[in-house]
Design brief:
The complex is a heterodimer of chains A (113) and B (111). Chain A is 0% helix and 51% strand. Chain A is mainly β and 113 residues long. Chain B has 111 residues and is mainly beta. In chain B, 0% of the residues lie in helices and 57% in strands. In chain B, strands 2, 4, 5, 9, 10 and 11 form a six-stranded mixed β-sheet that branches. In chain B, strands 1-3-8-7-6 form a five-stranded antiparallel β-sheet, with no helix packed on it. In chain B, a hairpin with a 6-residue loop joins β4 and β5. In chain B, 34% of the residues are buried. Classes of the chains: A mainly beta (113), B mainly beta (111). At the A-B interface, β4, β5 and β10 of A face β4, β5, β9 and β10 of B.
Chain lengths: 113, 111
């Protein structure tokens, strides 16, 4: 069974540009979570999507947004990129019930120059 | 505001000995706790979890202990093996399914 996949693996952008990161969950999982791991920091919760709707978001500005498609895959969009957005972005999926274990993808490393 | 804290950034243990990784949290509403293991260039993988109604959960060489009064949990690995060398993240779940992660502890098991 395929795990969580993310694309691209690496992304280089300049300040002010937009970045789009993609995630495909494990088959049968309806929830997708996005996390940011900046250098020296733990995983910071960004967004949670379930059944196509945004269920919760972390303490990030509105230029971090996303969506979930009917096939449960998801996109994370970061607008007006800033240097401090450089980080590893991890996507995780779960079956959607509360406290269900999340399975992580390998991440997308975003570098903002 | 870091609601889940792992105060030891690194830990070195001899092969065969016990590894103890610690985690503290501040939010008494957390009801589910997990440990993840992460190798370089890979996403975190789930290791073991515990519900707030329990104080211990064991899975093979891995045991997680929860002390709710102290808002503290720990992961014990016995015996430690070189393949256990990785970064370990502690995570806690709040109502609304939002997960909070610690900053990680890098474990090195010395052969």
């Amino acid at each position: 069974e395929a795990g969580v996949t993310q694309s691209p693996t690496h992304l280089i952008k300049t300040r002010g540009q937009q970045a789009t990161l993609r995630c495909s969950p494990i088959s049968g999982h309806t929830s997708v979570y996005w996390y940011q791991q900046a250098l020296g920091l733990g995983l910071q919760f960004l967004l949670w999507y379930d059944e196509g709707e945004e269920r919760n978001r972390g303490n990030f500005p509105p230029r971090f947004s996303g969506r979930q498609f009917p096939n449960y895959s998801s996109e994370l969009n970061v607008n007006a990129l800033e240097l401090e957005d450089s980080a590893l972005y991890l996507c995780a999926s779960s079956s959607g019930t509360a406290s269900e274990t999340q399975y992580f993808g390998p991440g997308t490393r975003l570098l903002v120059l | 505001d870091q609601q889940v804290k792992q105060n030891s950034p690194s830990l070195s243990v001899q092969e065969g000995r016990i590894s103890i990784l610690n985690c503290d949290y501040t939010n008494s509403m957390f009801d589910y706790f997990l440990w993840y293991k992460k190798y370089p260039a890979e996403g975190p993988t789930f290791l073991i979890s515990i519900s707030s109604i329990k104080d211990k959960n064991e899975d093979g060489r891995f045991t997680v202990f929860l002390n709710k009064s102290a808002k503290h949990l720990s992961l014990h690995i016995v015996p430690s093996q070189p393949g256990d060398s990785a970064v370990y993240f502690c995570a806690a779940s709040a109502p609304g399914n939002q997960f909070y992660f610690g900053t990680g502890t890098s474990l090195t098991v010395i052969p």
